[in-house]
Amino acid sequence: MGNFFRRVGLLVFCILLLTELSHAQSYSDDFWNNPNVIWKTYTGTIITAAFAKKMHAQGNYEIMERDLRGGRKEVKMVPPKKKAKPAPRRFNWNDPNLVIKDDAGRTLPDGMHHLLRRINSIKWNADTLIDNSIEVTFDIAASKPWKSAWTESNIQYVREWVDRWKGKQLPIFSLVDLEGTTVSSSSLKGQFIVLNFWNSSCDVCAKEIKQLNEMTQAFFDQKVAFLAPNFEQAGTVRMALENHNFYYKVLPNAQSLSDDLGLEYYPTHMIVDPNGKILDINVGGTYNIDEEIGKRLSWLLAENSNK
């Protein structure tokens, strides 16, 4: 019985040795000197065969092959995986060596993670790298450019309206909130403004209030004004909010601002920069409106504080 196991062990060793030798043979001189191969880095930069061979020898880079037309081949040098193990959930978020990225691999502005962590629906994951530094990745669906971080309507005339106002100045306004306080564009100069145009007949508008309330709590200490203009009379608005607490500053009798914008679509959300320029517009209901506004606003506030 002992001889049987020894023979099996020797057979397994021989198989592994042959596998390794065949692997090494696949990267022989003929492989590196093949004139029909286009050598690239993992990001697509074209390199020489000699440089690719050096990367493989010194950096343990893996090789990714892809056949092209005409008998040619593309070979990319794939870097070794950086992540070693999950990081402990408790670590120093203020560590200057902390690497913080979005799920598209882009480094986030300094301080942005402090705001994102306040938005409960946004998930994050931390890993310890080979050099023992910690990399944190926020899952914020960042496949789209930040300049259009949230959805816009596909209806052509709505898109034309969005395009007409994005990047333009918000019209000057002066409105009175439900407590009788005047709120004007001049009094809010120097602050980011988040606008939610809504009305009592809009079911989607009512459904969004809970998420919008949660989102405002994430920015309680930031220089941001959350305004909810409504074209209806104050009495109608109060009745609509009897069963809802709305943490935005509600502005009834706001037909003049809607007319200046030519706004006909509800709900409509806007983010306006401290100079009064409209940076983003979202028309229609979005199931995760708190996350969409929150991640965009977090980016803008972090960028603004780093200027």
User: Could you name the CATH class of the largest domain?
Assistant: Alpha Beta
Largest sheet: 5 strands, mixed
Distance between the termini: 76 Å
CATH topology descriptor of the largest domain: Glutaredoxin
CATH homologous superfamily (4th level) name of the largest domain: Glutaredoxin
Structural class of the secondary elements?
alpha/beta
Task: Describe what you observe in this structure.
It is built from nine helices and 14 strands. It has helices at 2-26, 29-32, 49-59, 112-116, 156-165, 203-217, 234-240, 255-261, 289-305; strands at 37-41, 62-67, 73-78, 83-86, 99-102, 123-129, 134-139, 174-176, 182-184, 192-197, 224-229, 249-251, 268-272, 278-283. The strands form four sheets. A five-stranded mixed beta sheet has the order 12-11-10-13-14, sandwiched between helices. It has four domains: 1-30; 33-80, no CATH class; 83-139, no CATH class; 150-305, Glutaredoxin. The N and C termini lie far apart (76 Å). Strand 2 (62-67) and strand 3 form a beta hairpin. It is of the alpha/beta class. The longest helix has 25 residues, at 2-26. 33% of the residues lie in helices and 23% in strands.
Topology:
Elements: H1 2-26, H2 29-32, E1 37-41, H3 49-59, E2 62-67, E3 73-78, E4 83-86, E5 99-102, H4 112-116, E6 123-129, E7 134-139, H5 156-165, E8 174-176, E9 182-184, E10 192-197, H6 203-217, E11 224-229, H7 234-240, E12 249-251, H8 255-261, E13 268-272, E14 278-283, H9 289-305
Parallel strand pairs: 1-3, 5-7, 10-11, 11-12
Antiparallel strand pairs: 2-3, 4-6, 6-7, 8-9, 10-13, 13-14
Helix pairs in contact: 6-9
